[in-house]
Fold these 2 entries.
Entry 1:
Amino acid sequence: MAVRNILGIGAGYVGGPTMAVMAARCPDLRIEVADIDEERVRAWQSGRPPIYEPGLDEVLRRGLGRNLSFTSDLPAAIRRAEMIFVSVNTPTKVFGQGMGMAADLQHWEATARTIRAHAPGPRIVVEKSTVPVRTAEAMDQILNEEGTRRFEVLSNPEFLAEGTAIRDLEEPDRVLIGSAETPAGQAAAAELVDIYARWVPRERILTMNVWSSELSKLAANAFLAQRVSSINAIAELCEISGARIGEVARAVGMDRRIGPRFLEAGVGFGGSCFRKDVLNLVYLCRHSGLTEAADYWHSVVRFNDHHQARFAAGIVSQMFNTLVGKRIALFGFAFKADTGDTRDSPAIRIARALVEERARLVITDPQALENARRELADLADRIEFTDDPCEAARGAHAIVVVTGWRQFAELDYGRILATMERPAFLFDGRNLLDAERMFSLGFNVVPIGSPPRLHFE
Ligand SMILES: NC(=O)c1ccc[n+]([C@@H]2O[C@H](COP(=O)([O-])OP(=O)(O)OC[C@H]3O[C@@H](n4cnc5c(N)ncnc54)[C@H](O)[C@@H]3O)[C@@H](O)[C@H]2O)c1
């Protein structure tokens, strides 16, 4: 019998948009999303989502009141559902064995136990969270503990990128569906294929063994993070050799074997996934005795840490080795443009390093100020926040571009410079602004991956 009632557990950056797009694309299905966080549930249900994501409001509004609803009553929602997607958080463990590396699966396991307690009959459970390879096996054992096989566990990792989540969900590069290689596992996979096939071309839906599916997600994020570290490593060499990273990246990216995307040098990767997933991979390798493979992937994260520390240190050294009492405007706090998410944002380390040097920090961001305040709550008396970048720069000795928001590229920097202290510095951590133009306006410009343009020797 075809599935009609779907439940998504976890209404975060993945669960909310994923289920909203599914509801929009499958008007004949009834889709519910459940979360233990009642405030989040209320926000989603009111049509004002708790996260910023371009295009999300519209998709959400279309579904609400039609075939999409949000609830914090998990038992009732589980009783109604035939297929359950689980998109709960799987952060890096901060305690015990594997601390700082392994994935913390406590929310996943708690969810599996809640499902087992309340599901009245056979169910398909879809693992959407990013998890270590072989997690589905553990979940299968927890769900089917009593000997009777009631649950089929599928792996269906999510590849959306924040900032483009709606487009990524509507037109995914691929959808992975991993299942047990048994008739029941394959039947469950076929049910999920039928759902995606309503809007995703069939050739982009890949069915595979469950372990391949789980590992493909970690591998994809590790490859992406590795590209960021690779281009940033080349950027460092550019800064001291006279080469320009934009020119090098273009030349490298035109090789069809490499491709042009994800070759922008910057302040290093952030966000809730890359560090977590690469470290998870490192842990898996190390745990399996694959020391060299673990070291290889670990270097991707270690380089990123170094690169961010180097960026902050460069600000101190360019500004005559002291920041004490100097006002510095941080342009952007989100981990990238078009999101309000600040989890593991490079801005956190940079802000902390500058405050440590006793700079007076002013942070501006069009979407992330609330999260920024929360991230830096312990420094509340030493940081100002404003949603007006011109106000942030007034009286400042330096602007530091940390997030590549388009709005920052459209400001009148001539007028901004007139309100700043001299010499005025511009540290462009995203190469967002035209360095030559900024230099000719009067800024001392320090881009990523090309030599600084300074008005003094
Ligand atoms: N954020 C991304 O860009 C992204 C992309 C692809 C995959 N992922 C993966 O998807 C998963 C979710 O990520 P996210 O960014 O949406 O996390 P999130 O923290 O934004 O959302 C997780 C939600 O799960 C809820 N939750 C936790 N335990 C629960 C329980 N027992 N019952 C019901 N709800 C519970 C939390 O309250 C929270 O609202 C992670 O595994 C992540 O690695 C994230």
Entry 2:
Amino acid sequence: MRIPADKRLILKAPIIAQSRGAVGGRVQVACGLKHASDAGNMPLFQRKALSAMSDDHSTPADGSARRGIKSFVLRQGHMTAAQQRAIDENWPRFGVDYQNAPLDLAAAFGREAPKILEIGFGMGTATAEIARRLPEKDFLAIDVHGPGVGNLCKLMAEQGLANIRVMRHDAVEVVENMLADGSLDGIHIFFPDPWHKKRHHKRRLIQPPFVAKLLPKLKSGGYVHLATDWEEYAVQMLEVLNGFPELANTAADYAPTPDYRPETKFEARGKRLGHGVWDLVFVKL
Ligand SMILES: C[S@@+](CC[C@H](N)C(=O)[O-])C[C@H]1O[C@@H](n2cnc3c(N)ncnc32)[C@H](O)[C@@H]1O
């Protein structure tokens, strides 16, 4: 169920209240700043908001420099025998190992075709269904969750899907180190962990620093499709994407769910809990 417009306005108010000035009809919020130096002239409350939404560059006890957002907690999760077998038997065909070097996507898929990145596919049921619906496109699907990786390999083998490649790694590092600029035609991030508690918001994927790393990977004309069942995160997503002038929203705010996206497992769970669903589809200019 979508939220009525009047309710959205109330929920947006706290974020809009932090912003100063609208440019070209867009509200520029603190989190939309491109340069850290831009923060220097901001009032303290804005600097705090920016800092809370920024990557965590804390230094661990060993003194090594820690890279940005850690958007997941590795759950143990039970890998079934069938999931493990699907990995063992199919990884050479479907799996891509992490490397600290650019990935040749055409070689990985064995063809030239539009390439879509999916971050956080969970159990992979929606990923497999989308790949089945769009056989002319290739999907690089990344998650850290072992049973999900096994499940997606199993679905691919069962359904004879050849247009997915699976990675089990932190997508932030993959984006940083393996994807060439202008190599993607689309990006799917469906129901990323909402990190409900305020002190955990810094773990959310959809924040300006990560989106700034993601967007150069998209071709001009490529799209970003996000979905969430957490209203306050939907508002944040809209604010963050609106902060990038190279992106144009395909809708006034939230988009109708595109035909290619089936209900995901996490979405179904959210609906059972009475949550709404918000899709956002932006195109790179
Ligand atoms: C809430 S679940 C949603 C899964 C699926 N998209 C769905 O809608 O059912 C979020 C998923 O993102 C994955 N994830 C979170 N951060 C990630 C990262 N940095 N790299 C790869 N996967 C990540 C988690 O392991 C989890 O499977």
